[in-house]
Amino acid sequence: MSNEEKISAVQKMIGDFAPKLVEYTDNVLFGDLWEGKELSPRDRSLITVAALVAGEHSGQLKYHLGRAIDNGLTEAELVGVITHLAFYTGWPRAMTAIMIAKEMFESKQ
Question: Both 49 and 101 in a single domain?
């Protein structure tokens, strides 16, 4: 495996600018937390997408929608989640999220 393959996505984005944040992201968030046995990756993705929509964290949503697809959620399920959340988190948050999802799904076709 080359050095390029060992560099995580967050390392590529942030580099040496915030090394502790990179370390926590790689080792704790995507290491310990995402690899826990209590929940399936699919369930973790569903929860994460819902939390991002609820918190209106649109900057992270596109990545996690893609990860959710990789973890077994369908486009229809994700649209259903966002639609459901409109009633619990607010219409503007759901509309922002659905536009991000629409753009992402259309770009993959």
Answer: yes
Please give the structure tokens belonging to residue 59: 């900057």
Number of structural domains (the chain) is: 2
Any domain includes 2:
no
Reported as type and span, the H/E element at residue 70 is helix 58-70
Q: Which two tokens stand for residue 69?
A: 């697809």
Contact in structure between 72 and 42 (CB atoms under 8 Å): yes
What pTM does this model have? 0.84
pLDDT tens-place string over residues 56-83: 999 999 999 999 999 999 999 999 999 9
Which domain range does residue 32 map to? 7-38
Crossing angle of helices 58-70 and 91-107, in 10° steps, is 50
Name the residue type at position 53: V
